[in-house]
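Objective 1.3, modelling of assemblies. Example input:
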Amino acid sequence: MIRLKWKLYPSYFVITFAVLILVGLLARAELRAVYLKQLRLDLDHRCTSVSLLLAHTWPETGIYSSYELKKLAMDPTLRITLIRADGVVVGDTDKPAESLKNHSDRPEFIEALKSGTGSSIRDSASIGHEMLYVAHRTQDPQGNPLVVRCSMGMNFIRAELRRFSFTLLWSFLAASILAAVASWFVGARLSRPIEQLSMQAKRFAEGNLKERSHIGTVKELEVLNSSLNEMAGLLEKRLDHVIAQRNEHEAVLHSLAEGVLAVNDRHHIISINPSAERMLHIVGQPIGQPMVEWIRNPEIVEALDKSRQIGAPVTKEVLLYLPEERVVRIVAAPLRDNGGKDRGAVCVLFDMTGMRKLEQVRTDFVANVSHELKTPVTAIKGFIETLLDTPDLDGEQMREFLGLTNKHVVRLQQIIENLLFLSHLERPDLDLQLVSLDLVQVAKRAVSACESLAATKGSKIQLIGEGPAQIQGNGALLEQCLVNLVENAIKYGASEDTIELAIQKSDNKILVTVTDHGEGIPREHLQRIFERFYRVDRARNKATGGTGLGLAIVKHITQLHKGRVDVSSEMGKGSTFTLSFPETNP
Amino acid sequence: MAEQHFHREISELKSQVAILGGMVEGGIGRALKALREGNLAMAQEVVESDKVIDEIEVQIEEACLKVLALYQPVARDLRTVITILKVTNDLESMGDLMESIANKVALVDAENFERSPMKLGPMADKAMEMVHKALDCLLQENVRVAREVHQLDEVVDQYHAENHKTVADGINSRGDKFSLAELKLLSVSRALERIADLATHIAEDVIYLVEAKIVRHRKVI
Ligand SMILES: Nc1ncnc2c1ncn2[C@@H]1O[C@H](COP(=O)(O)OP(=O)(O)OP(=O)(O)O)[C@@H](O)[C@H]1O
Ligand SMILES: [Mg+2]
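Predicted structure (tokens):
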């Protein structure tokens, strides 16, 4: 590739060359003509003057010697030849007349004889180089016609012309150097903006669309430049848009809890999000790699294949074992481009493990409820059947049976009420109607509600309050919560126990503790007693008549108040239940 | 040209090994799950799948022999084919162990499993991790992961030794009352230990493939 500035030079050179050659040739021809004209005129005069002098110097013999003629010529470069009408040479300055052949065939001679004067240019046969001949017709003293011919070598003209050619050559050299310089400057002026433009285009190509160039010298280039800039601006905007869109898509994919995995038509992974990596336990850089080498689960591979084959989504539930066991529902769908061409497949993975657990909890719960309800219903049914089958029961026995039936009905009612209460607490649209209240007042009400129960076991309830303990809460619910705890303490505490209900404050928290001195709760049951229907000793509790729902209610209510419940217990010494609520400033 | 064909065959073989590995990996997982849950149907499925595994193994072996005969590979290419052959073999053995675990499901209740004093759960997790990593390092030719597998082997061995001791102590102290299920579970522990060994073999084969040195039976690598 030749740079622009050097591209201009050859044309400059050719132009200079052509002009100089043309001018030189014309000038040379003109010069030659001028010289020739001058010479011919000169020779004309010589002829005339020689003709005039002839009469005085005509020799007796009728033939001139060279010497005599030379005297007439007075110029050594001038050759004079005298020729008779029959062509016989009678005198010549350069050679003896007798040695010269008949000149009747010379063109200038013929012309002169005919019209008086004649001329011709040719190589002289006798002298050897190019000569100009001019001939005049005149008369010798006897009146016979005679031709005087003067001639001169033309080599001086040639020498002049050669000199002129040399001058021309030198000026040509000078001109070509000048042309080079000129073309360089012009080229540079032209190419600088073009170079700038190409640099700019290169920057754009490299992705640097921010910079803008300005070229103010050439109109056409400036137009090109501004359209280039415009294009860059447009590109930048579009690119930004595309990048933003891609980032958005990526962010969406990235933050999805569902796993997304896409493979191309050659089964290489083209996209995978962190959730999918987590579920499939992929560590590394799987993008662009064969899918089977990273996701070896045959079912997933099969589902992707099948969805591509049938061109429709395939749903399947698969088990994954790492890092822990998971149930994952996969939906594989074929990937098609706009033309409907097969582009691979995409697979969405839903982690169903949690859902399955929840379902488990739900079925367990239903089973529990049914079981809990069944016991009293069976008992009631038994009593009623006995009553129906034995009509001759006396009043005493009848009362006993009805009393037992009533106990179970009460228990049934309790279970149902508690369950309803729990489901009421669980309602998402539950309006708590929180008000600022003093927990010590709530505790007082709870204590008086439990007093009669305490009396049956000879226990006392001691309220240790550092009131006022302000929290945001629902009084009725909190009272229920405390009643449940105190009831448990009475029921499972020792006989004639002193149950402590204490309310303390500690760093922005209000702690409510219920302490009894019963036999305590075995360690392995501590975490589970808050579950619904969970009772430590089922057999013993049947007698005490508990439903196993009290602590579940306690837990729910504290959680509704942004609090938490803990239990600590020592076997044989007693248990302490602790509620902690965030304090609000009165 | 031949070069290209050869590499295509090799990547095809690798995919097949990946599929085989996936089946074995999943099968072991399901066998253990079946054992945990006493799920007989699932155990039966696993036993069935071992037949497929055996079939695939034969296919891969035949393909390997064909490649060896057809292309007569040398140096690293040769090592690749040999590694695939060995790994296929190891995977097949794993399949057999998986089947033997699945066969225990009928003999051991889920409750036995849950209440067993042996640390089978964490041991199974580790063994599974080893199998997964062994396949990863094979397919991605990743020596670092291969060394991780090698290190995990010791952990699994230790679990097995502990389990063994637990059972032995149990027999000594409780005598006749010792449940037969414990012995069955001990054989599960042994199967897991064997699986871990096979995973380690695979990892060693990968190191051999990449670095051309045989590391088997070496403690420090
Ligand atoms: N203070 C305590 N001391 C010992 N055991 C307790 C104490 N509080 C609760 N428990 C145990 O926790 C179980 C669950 O208690 P929860 O209050 O939920 O049910 P419940 O008392 O049996 O029935 P309900 O309260 O509905 O009448 C009880 O059955 C009991 O075994
Ligand atoms: Mg209670």
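Chain A touches chain B through 21 residues (CB under 8 Å).
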